[in-house]
Amino acid sequence: METGKKTLILDLHKIGALKFGEFKLKSGATSPFYIDLRSIISYPAIIKNIVSLLKAELADKKFDVITGIPYTALPLAAQVSVEIDTPLVYQRKEVKAYGTGKLIEGHFKEGQTCLIIDDLITTGESKFEAAEGMEHAGLKVHDFVCLIDRSFNGEEILATKGYKLSSIITVEDMISVLGAEGKLDVELAQKVREFVATPVDKPLKKFADRVESTTSPMTRKLMDAMLRKQSNLVLSLDVEDTASFFEILEAAGPEIFMVKTHVDIMKDFNGSFVPRLKALAERHDFIIFEDRKFADIGSTVRKQFRSGVYKIADWAEYVTVHMIAGEAILDGLFGDLEIPRSGFLLARMSAKGNLISETYTRQVLEVGKRRKECVSGYIGHGANVDDIKRFRNKIPQDQLLLMPGVNLDTKGDGLGQQYLTVEDAIEGGADAIIVGRGIVASADPGAEAKRYREAAWNAFQSKNK
Ligand code: 5BU
Predict the structure, then answer these.
(1) Which one of 62, 154, 420, 460 has the minimum C-beta count within 10 Å?
(2) Which regions of the chain are under pLDDT 50?
């Protein structure tokens, strides 16, 4: 190993930026080591060494501007920028939403390539968010350079979106240098190795085990219905007249565990619609889900949910909710309600060019995790199986992922819808698929519903074997 790297490892250990022992993580897990590089800025000699290591690492990479992810990596990138005579840009940490202020500081031209430096890589999530900010501003991102790679499979994760990762030191480098210097005993070194060799995100458990560990009655109700009905198919019944609505639902009813409505599409909605729908739901044993996509302030959505012509809360047990207005929307919808109702949060959309960002998705999931009593899961999508898996990994096992934008025969609808296949959706980690026109627009919706149910349930069964 290069002297510079060895010196760096010993120095980081000396200043307490690398520690070994037993550390409680935010996630609740215990880690045998702890890395916190925030204090390195106070050690000019260490910074000097890091800058020269970074400089060497950058030598074979092509880029026009350089950045560091705030806070720790930004001063490093600033020093490197001067050394290699390449402009620095940086993304403001405090600007939360695009459009509300200048997101990227510094001068650059659209289409230029930005290389991103960070101190650590663990899951890769913050790298995606950083890349997204740069790309949103018109820069291209290819390369990430991290000082320490402590990830399980960081390179692979970044590669799912086409990024390349290189790192200065790995956990194995640290073990070998500190072990040789007598600063890390063999037993602890082994624990560190094992810890790093375990994926951060636990693979999805078998569905049966997930059902057992689910305590929210409303989420459990959906899982039980799937098992009872041997179906993970949600029919999205977007038709405009009640006659077609009930005709299709009668035919597809035996195949689905839930029907998803857009009740405001119906031209001839009247007082008999809800009793008919409820009777059919009972007869065919499916659940009713209104895709209302509530998005306003708490007080308004409460009225939209419970009042007006449709009185959605009276008949739809589940509804979709956008998180754009913040967590209080959940109190507006589900607070002080006497009947059990629950929501699905829109975490990612299938529409081409939709404005949902990685950061937004993460924030939606954070709210959903806190509010399991009224959040049964998420509506989400993905570019491909790997992308869906990465997203699914962030969703708690006792919540569901429903996936629209699924079609067995077409890839799009000319209006921005992007379809995945049933197999890819389930392989990625969708618990259920939401299918509209694939079934509704066919000549025989009953037979088509059967075809989708079988495809989705078989894929789900093999995944959960
Ligand atoms: P389709 O006919 O299978 O394309 O219908 C898909 C349904 O799912 C339709 O009701 C949409 O409103 C709904 N949907 C979606 O397609 N994509 C999304 O990201 C979300 C909802 Br959220």
Answers:
(1) 62
(2) 98
